[in-house]
Structures are given as C-alpha cells and as structure tokens.
Amino acid sequence: MSGDYARENMLTPEEVTASTLNDKKIFLETMGKDLADYNLPTLSLNKTIKSTFPKKILDEMLVVTPAEDYQAENLLNADQRVAFE
Question: What residues contact 30, with CB distance under 8 A and at least 6 apart?
Fold first, then answer.
C-alpha cells in the first residue's frame, strides 16, 4: 500500500507512512480494532493525510452491521439453509 502512495503521489516518506497508517487505521476501526492492537506506530495528526480509499468505499466500510444480522444464518429453516449453502 505504501508503495502505491510513493508511485502515484508526490509525497515525502513521512507523508507516505502517515497515509498508509491512516488507511490501515480506517480499515481496522471498521472491525473494532486499533493500530495499537498490532504494535503499529501512532499517527501524527499534524500531517496532511490523503486516503487511497474512494469515498464510496469508505462510506460502506463505516456501516455498522447489527449483531442480529450475524446470527441470521443460525435461524434459517432447512429449505433456506439448502438455498444459502
């Protein structure tokens, strides 16, 4: 991912790192995780950060799925289970 920033943008190495960490932070937050959970460096907030994720994808990544939706598969009847699998 950082290689993409370096090739496609005129960014300093620090900006490449900050942008990469920002995208990782956004992705991890969608799963309830944090950069600190993976011993990654913290973001420096004084840097201008540009995300490589298109806005529509970011919007979809930030949608919260209700817990009952995760359990819906367990509630299928036999016919529904055959169609699902």
Answer: 61, 62
Phi and psi at 65, nearest 5°, equal -95, 125
Residue (of 9, 12, 13, 39) closest to 24 by Cα position: 39
- Domain spans in the chain, listed from the N-terminal domain onward: 2-84
Task: Provide the 3-class DSSP secondary structure of residue 13.
Answer: helix
CB crowding 60-78: b at 16 or more within 10 Å, else e: eeeeeeeeeeeeeeeeeee
- Over residues 10-64, the pLDDT tens digits come to 677 877 788 888 888 888 888 888 888 888 777 765 555 555 666 677 677 777 8
